Amino acid sequence: MHLAAARAALSGATVVCAMLLTALPATASAAPAPATQAAATQAGIDRGVLLAKADQPQAGEAYGDPWVNPYFEPGVTGPSCWDYGRNTRATAGISARFSTPTWFHSYNDVWVFSNSDDAAAFERQWRADLTTCVDRNRPAETGMTVHDITKVGETDGVDILRITEAVNPYSTITHFFWVAVVRQGRAVYAVQLLDYRNGEPQPMSFDNTVAKIKAKLAAYYP
Questions:
Q1: Residue 49 above 90 pLDDT?
Q2: pTM for this structure?
Q3: What is the DSSP letter of 108?
Q4: Average pLDDT over the chain, rounded to whole?
């Protein structure tokens, strides 16, 4: 199951419970727990790079304070449709979720690389994964269905995508991700807005969000 699948299937308090279950202590002979591995990569990133809740896409609802995911694995996790498990070459990363009272969860993920070439390669691989995402996530008994990926706009050179998904086996009950991925310098910042509204929602504006991301990356990871 790719990143967006896990996020769509588990929201709000359910996400927290599921994450806690993955943090059970390892035995003496087992490999380090994911939390230990993730902590090592999060230690090298400044939380100040994260956008404020006021800088999230304007959804018509107020965002709460962010929940920072202690189990984020920047070395093997990418934006929606990334082939989970492939080495990203990121040296550090951080993931935070901003939620509104009802319909929205805004996931802010940052990957930091040792140089700009590695950051560019990461973005290229993600774009390649987008082209096979629907075929890799067809209706099945478990996991996710990805129905469609559409470019719905562009903000300061950054594509705004709408990804239509469903949780199997209920492949006709869809939800949306509005996705903007910004690469600048040696870092990549993704905002992936999970939209649970019914029907065909109007696109979200990312104009302010993208501008704020570029300012953050210029200040922290030029």
A1: yes
A2: 0.82
A3: E
A4: 83
